[in-house]
TrEMBL record:
This is FAD-binding oxidoreductase. Belongs to the FAD-binding oxidoreductase/transferase type 4 family. InterPro entries: Alkyl-DHAP_Synthase, FAD-bd_oxidored_4_C, FAD-bd_PCMH, FAD-bd_PCMH-like_sf, FAD-bd_PCMH_sub1, FAD-bd_PCMH_sub2, FAD-linked_Oxase-like_C, Oxid_FAD_bind_N. Gene3D superfamilies: 3.30.300.330, 3.30.465.10, 3.30.70.3450, Uridine Diphospho-n-acetylenolpyruvylglucosamine Reductase, domain 2. It comes from the Bacteria. The keyword Lyase does not apply. Residues 97-279 form the FAD-binding PCMH-type domain. Keywords: FAD, Flavoprotein, Oxidoreductase. The keyword Oxidoreductase applies. Pfam families: FAD-oxidase_C, FAD_binding_4.
Amino acid sequence: MPASPSGPVTSRTRSWWGWGYTDAHPDDAECVALGALLPGTPGRPLPVPRVADLSIGRPGVTPPTALAHLVTTDPGVRAAHAMGKAYRDVIRALRGRPGRIPDLVARPTDDREVADLLDWAGGRGVAVIPFGGGSSVVGGVEYRGDAHRAVLSLDLTSMDRVLEVDTVSRSARIQSGALGPVLEAQLRPHGLTLRHFPQSFEFSTLGGWLATRAGGHYATGRTHIDDFVQSLSVVTPAGPGTSWRLPASGAGPSPDRLFLGSEGALGIITEAWMRLQERPHHKASASVAFADFQQALEAVRAIARSDLSPANCRLLDPGEALLSGASHDGSSVLVLGFESATSPVDDRLASALDLALAHGGRGGHSGLGGTPAADGGAPADTAVSAWRSAFLRMPYLRDGLARMGAVVETFETAATWDRVPSLIDAVRTEVSSVASKATGHPATVNCRLTHVYPDGAAPYFTVAVAGRPGDEVRIWDDIKAAASEVLHRYRATITHHHAVGRDHRPGYDLQRPDPFALALRAAKDALDPHRILNPGVLID
């Protein structure tokens, strides 16, 4: 049955240079207060950058008349599509050096228009950078280099409808440009949800999640968007294709897997049939404090290996707990949450708390809870509420620190349990040493576990240090290189859910097997013969 295309409408203004909405950015006074937390930052923030101050040249190419109505050359729109939202992007904008600004921004409304734009770009040697919400933190939506005569940013957010809802099979056909809130608003009247809530939920699209194999908020079970895919429709320079809609199949290599995680380098994902779930009605959450981080790791491993399947199983180390306000006494904090559409979850929460307390935890405060990105709900206790607020606010605070000249990097990985403790210790020690040496200032490295599995976990690290004016990008590069070296040495993935983009290419090149790289290169040659799709991503 068809679904209404109407989604939530907001009059709030998106920031062209930083995270989220402009009215949510820290003001100058809050920036100064943030900077005071890092010794060595200056006493005054960098000014908020203006598009009018950028040097934006005339487009190097003109679209044909038949496509002109899809394309804009507006300087503000072009600047907003020049890059994503990594620290590197934010500090370059603050310094007035945003990189290569696209010549054109196109907003197609259907598959035919996508195909026409690709045909034209291929014949003119124009690079095409797929763009959804622009929330990439790994350099996934910008052009680097000079091998193409012009750059077209292909913005898919006009393709944002839930086209069909199959309540019998509990699935929906959804256009890839639907932002998280727009998508969920169209599913809500059916009592259904995709249940995929990354931190970027408000500012990212279904197509972006699919193209980057995004991880959601939920810590166990179906943690990645891959798990929800029934079929994909993709437009490539070599032609369109749609996989069969199936609950499962053993017929050779999965055609969907070729494009999941391909980051727009092989084709443009335009639609997908996605598995849905009933909206949860029963929720409960709790927090547990630990004096010893290693005991907390053991508690999380025990919970992950049980059959309890918590929706949230977020372990914050002492620094992360302090930063979020979840703890002020040097404790690590485990935030637990359960939810169900059909039955109460209090017994499952109680069992998880028993496991945590048996491994040295204390407290176990509990109550009703909710998901941080979408469903709301009353907080269980102060720690859960504080963490939830910090989770949503953190990207804005990062930009406030950037205005103070601080260098802030976040990166995530995953490794098997036998390597997780030593990996965390190595990152803390080695990355903080590199950051301090590069800046001359003390560095902070915090860690939290975002996703947990029976065989391993996904640590997420935050690095913060006062920078040197004008040298922030080089320092960030040094920190990124040091972190990538540690991950490679411990055979931990270069990314668990942020994607590869351009920033993680060196680590990705080392991680993938050589025969797979050969096959990927052949797929690129076959599907994108003019080499126009997101050049520099995944494969050269």
